[in-house]
Amino acid sequence: MDDSVARLRWLRVPALLTVVGLVVAACGTSAPTTSNLAKDQTLRVNIVTEPNSLDPGQEQYSYEGAVGASISEALLKIKPDLSDAAPATAASYNVSSDGLTWTFHIRSNAKWSDGKPVTGADFVFAWQRILDPRLAAPYADPFFDGTIAGAADYANLDPTKDAAKIPDFLNGLGLSAPDASTFVVKLQAPSPFFKWIASLWMSAPVRKDVVDQYGSDKWATSPTSLITNGQYKVSEMVSKDHITLVPNTNYWGGAPTVTKIINYEISDDNQAYAKYLNGELDTVNVPLANTDLVKNDPKLKNEIKFVPQLTLFWMDFNTRKAPFNNKQARLAFSKAIDRNALATDVLKGRSSPADYFIPKGMNGYRPDLGKSQEFDAAAAKTMLTQAVGDPSKITIDFLIRNITANKQIGEFIADQLQTNLGVKVNQVVIDSKTVTTRLRKHDYSLYVGGWGADYPDDQDWFDIWMTGSGNVFGGYSNPDYDALVKKADVEADAKKRQDLYDQAQKILIDDAGGGFLYQRNYMFLVKPYVQGLTPTAQDFEDVGDWFWGKVSIGQH
Amino acid sequence: MAVAQGAPPRGALIAFKIPRGRGASLGLYVVRRILWLIPVLFFVITITFVLIHFAPGSPWDKEGKQLSAAVVRNLNAKYGLSDPFIVQYGRYLVNVVHFDFGLSFQYEDQPVSSLILKSWPPTATIGLLAFLMIVVFGIGTGVVAALRQNTWVDYIVVGFSTIGASTPAFVVGIILIIIFSVTLYRVTGGNFSLPTGDFALDQHLILPVVTLSVLPIAFIARLTRASTLEVLRQDYIRTAWAKGLRERLVVTKHVLKNSLIPVVSALGPTFAVLITGSVIVESVFNIPGIGRAFVIAVSSRDYPMILATTILFSVVVALANLIVDLLYTVIDPRVRLG
Amino acid sequence: MAAPLLRVEDLRTQFFTSRGIVHAVDGISFNVNRGETVGIVGESGSGKTMTAFSILRLVPDPGRIVSGRILFKDQDVVQMNDDDVREFRGNDVAMIFQDPMTSLNPVTKVGTQIDEAMTAHERFSKKEAQARIIPLLQQVRIPEAAQRAQDYPHQFSGGMRQRAMIAMGLSNEPELLIADEPTTALDVTVQAQIIQLLKQLNRDVGAAIILITHNMALVASLCQRIIVMYAGRIVEEGPVEQIFDSPQHPYTWSLLRSVPRVDVARAERLVSIKGLPPDLVRLPPGCKFHPRCRFKIEKCEREEPPLEEVAPNQVARCWVMMRNVPQEQREETKAGEVSREAATELKQAGSG
Amino acid sequence: MAAAAVSLEQIDWENPEQIGLWRDAWQRFRRNPIAVGGLIFVCLLVLDALLAPLLVSVHLIADPLKQNVTHTYAGFSLQHPLGTDYLGRDLLSRVMFGARISLMIGLTVQAIYLVIGGTVGLTAGYFGGRVDNLLMRFVDIWYAFPDLLFLLVVVAVLGPSLFTIFVAIGVIGWVDLSRLIRGQVLSLKEKEFVEGARAAGSGPSKIILRHLLPNTLGPIIVSLTFGIPRAIFLEATLSYLGVGIPPPTPSWGIMIQDGYQAIFAYPHQVLVPALALAVTMLSFSFIGDGLRDAIDPRMRR
After folding, report:
1. Residue B261: closest C-alpha in chain C
2. A interface mutation test: which of D89, D149, D263, D264 has the most A CBs within 10 A?
3. What is the pLDDT of residue C239?
């Protein structure tokens, strides 16, 4: 099917058979114009799970971001190609010469969904609220208490015992609004990555009067009290069924084409897939097992959207216990995994093999650094035998979360280790939270972990391998690595900053802090009549869910 | 002479003699059974609380990015989880007595009672409809199969009930979706097909109710068939024929009244399970029911939600079993309760 | 002589089991006159119960009436269609069964079960049927009939249940009542009351009674005529006194000799019939009783004897006949004398 | 004149040719074709469960654990008669090995149900009054029991293993059977033969075992033959929750659970184990029916 035929398809009604489709298309008009927009501009997507909260301060999961990104707008917003953070509620910002003071200028026409203007004070209140221990905002640490001046001792403020000290702590933060359209932030240290913190959807403003009226934990639970400043606002919430968004008429950026977005909460892949086939969903994440079915289907294969994500998975070795306290043994285990087979056969070509740390799509992406962990079964076995002696005496406890995808990948990795190295692997497949508890207690040998970028800056990645980090459990610790990362975080010059990060990545890979495996890509089906889709490498639950505002529905 | 009939059951140690009239003793029995609900609930809450204490993991553990220690400490303080176990247990009991079931950890402090009130109706609707289908088709086919034993009707019922019983609900569910929504949609060019999922009081109910009732129908049909065959062999059936009664009368008045006893005892638990929701059917058909809510609550350790749903389940189950026991006395006069 | 109430002609009922065809009823013919009481006697497996079931077309699977006619007031029951048979059962001919414990529906009130028998036949309107229940219970001498009608079977004793069964049987004033071993499951004193009740009902209601039993004493006390069955066929038939006086078929003779005498002190050797009842699938050739008969002759093993007139309306199926058996072979005691005394005793006990 | 009659002494009256209940039951069972068919299939299954490892060592069937990721979800072929799964492992050998675990679970769990459920049901039904009340309230508690939570704790405390499954399934599922048996016993208890036995002075345990249990046999057998697939499904859900058998050992429950993901694209992944389960369940019900008819005392008359 050459390209021309595919383009014609845009015009036809999704008729029964492709042949019929082609006939209709032949007499269609030229490129899509506003005239052929569908009457009903409704977009139906699946966010899989019901959000726990739509209060920006208390959000943490991707299925919350999928809605939050449309209804709450931070100071800045990522560009689709992730090259920079573009102005959003803040028209512009400037950074003081010493890099410690960031001044944001709020748009005069930035308005809340109830028509009131967005002011600097709204941001001050929102960020102070995030740093209030009593709210226990999930993302307070490390993004806010690690950057904002005066926020350092957030960690040792107990909400009940030190309740009295909290007001002074909040007023002492480096947050101020000299006038209605200005918001000034003072930092603990110069942080070139701070623009990305200012573009996190959690750092969106919050109205003090609304919170006081409805209660800090109640205001975001119903459409009437959920006053937000994004391009859309929530019009209906039905528990475990769907959340409906409609345009925020007072939004400064003009009215979007799509007048209604229905975020379904369908957890069962087959159910979502059936809904897509029935035209009840406009986009769906292709279930892994259906990959080839979709690729070979004459109609569906033209509706595939393949988008790499800034998400990478690796083998998390517990370095406190043999055999993983030995670097050679770790490298041997990493070299024993055939990443190509994993990516192309097991994951059906939806993920790309990766024996490096920073994923493709970020400027720290260095594929050539992965030589030391390259797949080589023979070398791996000899390396392991030299390092720890007879492999058949080694038994590994391999922790796996009981999610079907994790289980299937786990079985493949266990088989690779047993066949290529001759070690014995106990696959412990248990309930997700039990896995996390055992990881925290270091009661494991091997675990497949991963990381999804909060924002496309190396800083967000390198801090997780630093000594004492809470997000990797293997206990990897290398003073040189820590020093390099600390220096890079505060380095103003971009070139030097990147070079420091590259050196740190090399040490990490050669140390085999983790056995890097693959980068995940999204493979979605999107109905042909969905126009203006803007996918990014940081999408939440659906391809293009950062920029629903740019979408329009063609006639169908 | 034969043993004195109606010898009092051994161990009837009730201090005062219940008045002989059937009505009075039944009313008293029901009251006593409902009063028994209180110790039962107490045990259920205690066991659940202990289980929660032992269950690994905390509500704040996450799959991907972990919360910092400070945030976890603040969350525990906010929900009182840092208090000693006994304090939490005592506080919960006091709240329950005042019908305050606390706030959900998961859904940003929405009161658990409102979450349950929202998620139980879909489950109950589908459960009740499925129960009706089970009673009508289960018992119906079972009796017909027994009356027409070893004929093609019998073989179909046995065959169907076995296939029905050996395919798990989610397989049955998705096959029905593939046939009646996806393929039907494609074949009829999109203008007729059953909805793939969601909940509404219209044709959205058809597929979930059918999926939910396939297995129980199979079981009840087999059970009815077995017990009806037993009863058909009894002497009093021959007496009924000898009296010259029409077949319809023999079946309804004599056969069914006796063969339904084991079926009622099996319908009791089936009813209780249906009403408390099937997580499988609810997730396959994307129904916002309480079955799924309970599983999500357990896997995310939403303690107040777990406790509240368990209390709801135990009340529903206890009442269902009470109804079944009362039905016994209606169906079988020989059975005396209490 | 008025036309007989019931005429059974060459009735054959067989069971088609995996082991082969069971000749339960192997061609029997007999008559029952209006108001007459007839006893059908024989060991279990002789086909007496199956004869009763055939009359009411109640032969259970895998049995079937293969041939023969059952004429009830000149209507052939075998040819009747289902509706007519349904109307016939319980209305013209009623039956009561052996085990009162299991013959009543355990979950329905006794009164309702009797009422049901009547409403099934529209002989009585609903109101009339309702009114008849209590008198019927009183007729069978059940105390506090009104209250007991509301009780359930498990609240009745064995004897009381059998009386309820009889009341149910008589509810439509049938012309023939078949009682299949009505007293076997009851103890002696209750037995006598039931037999006494049947006799009195026969007199008052005028219903003919077929009493099926293996107990010769009962037959003696209630019946006017006896039919002795063995291996699915009639081996002897005749008036009670004549049969008791001079039983001609060796089987009838030994049946009478196996009844113990209560009053006579002398030690008496009871005759028990050796061997087991024949296998109805592989019947022996010739006279079916020959394997267990002490007086048989060579011909008995080859050819089955026909029913032959041995006295006025008394027939027997035997080549030898007891009258031709010399005294010493029969041993000292006379068969007839023993059983008559036992019978008279029972009569006295019954009326007491 | 008298023929040579068989003399009395020759007939041995002490042990007349008496057919034992079980031999007679076996004779009638043997004549029931579908029940025998069911029995044959179950014997084949047990044989397969025992010999499967042997068949692998002589390469008659492929190794169920050998992965070949280039041939995932393959259809029916000579080399793989039933195709391959998501990691290219041979489905035929996995179904045969799956029988081992599933059968073991199905049968052992039923035994646990019968023992616990049976005792509770029989005692509650027979004694009635306070005992019945207490036991039934205990059953009520057990019914409302948050089984899912209990499973998690069991796994956390005992660790995932086969033994954990038996503890988990056994402890949760006996309630239905106990209520079923109690219902039966409540109505049977009033039956005359029980009162007769009680009058004859036999103790409660004798009455329960000799009289009540055989008479509740019909519904029990039906519920047991239904219990087997239910136990196997429960094992699949447990495996999904992590309480099941640790991978990669195959069981029918797990195969159905995994196959479900690919039902749109490769329906045979689900239908193969489901069919195996259906046929197994069919044979158990036929055996159940055959057994019930064979043992029923009334049929002996």
Report:
1. C107
2. D264
3. 92
